[in-house]
Amino acid sequence: MVRNVANWHEYLLHKTGIRKRDRFIFRLAHGIEADVPRAALFTFKELFFTDDYFRGLPQECFADGPLTVIDVGANVGYFSLYVFTRFPDARVIAFEPIDSNFRLLEANRKRNPSVDWTLVRQAVYSKTGPLVLTMAPEDEFTADATVFDNARGDKEVTVDAVSLAEALDANVVGAVDYLKLDIEGAEYDVLYGSPPELFERIRTIVIETHPGRAENQNKAALERYLSEVGYTTRTDSSPFIWAWR
Fold it and tell me: How far is Cα 181 from Cα 161, in angstroms, rounded to an integer?
């Protein structure tokens, strides 16, 4: 926290109850700023306090020049912002289909005009076309929009989806240095549904997995598949898979 956030003391004052806040503007490395409503603190902390998306990858994965990063399930942009704090010359293309999330994602983009950050209001899935997601009723943002059946009968929303291959081609991406997937269960459709040759363009993949009901919708099955298509993988007790080639 102290390493990544310049005004970290504001969070500690809030956490201890001394000075409660409904919203934070956190100041980060290289002049990056993040707009963080209190409801989004957990999502922010997952990136900036625990480093979940990078800690399982060898450092040599990031040794060569500016990175091209694909942020799938960008939510309100904290992963993308974390990338820029570590790699300020990176090119990041962020995909987020939910309107409420996209509004705050755009606000974070406007707050950081110096970075190479492209926002795409689409989901990434196994095929291109409309996609139905279920989610809790929208507040300022949501982190639970999923392709899985939801027994709670929550809100359904239809979003525009694009396949991973078409997403890369539409944004003129040849090689991908880092693909991040945090898409509440759609990771299986995206990866199993992509042509095997597509993975030759993607150096590293990091996935926060979400178990489903099918036999191949779990972390172990997905890790085996990534090994089969040419990746070295690492996991731990968390939901994450880190894969590189």
Answer: 15
Q: Which of 147, 186, 145 is nearest to 167 (CA)?
A: 186
Question: Cβ distance 62 to 141 under 8 Å?
Answer: no
Concatenate the DSSP letters of all residues of the chain into one string. Answer: -TTTBTTHHHHHHHHTTSS--SEEEEEBGGG-EEEEEGGGHHHHHHHHTT-TTTTTS-GGGG-SSS-EEEEES-TTSHHHHHHHHH-TT-EEEEE---HHHHHHHHHHHHH-TTSEEEEE--EEESSSEEEEEEESPPSS--S--BSS--TT--EEEEEEEEEHHHHHHHTT---BSEEEE--TTTHHHHHHTS-GGGGGGBSEEEEE----SSTT-SHHHHHHHHHHTT-EEEE-SSSEEEEE-
Alpha-carbon distance of 33 to 4, in angstroms, equals: 11
Please give the average per-residue pLDDT across 183-210, as a whole number. 95
The pTM is what?
Answer: 0.92
Locate the domains of the chain by residue range. 50-244
Class in CATH terms, 50-244:
alpha beta
Size (the chain), residues: 245
70 contact partners, CB below 8 Å, separation of at least 6: 92, 93, 95, 167, 168, 173, 176, 178, 179, 180
Q: For 12-42, what is each residue's pLDDT tens digit?
A: 888 787 778 889 999 999 999 999 998 888 8
Average pLDDT rounded to a whole number, residues 84-112 = 95
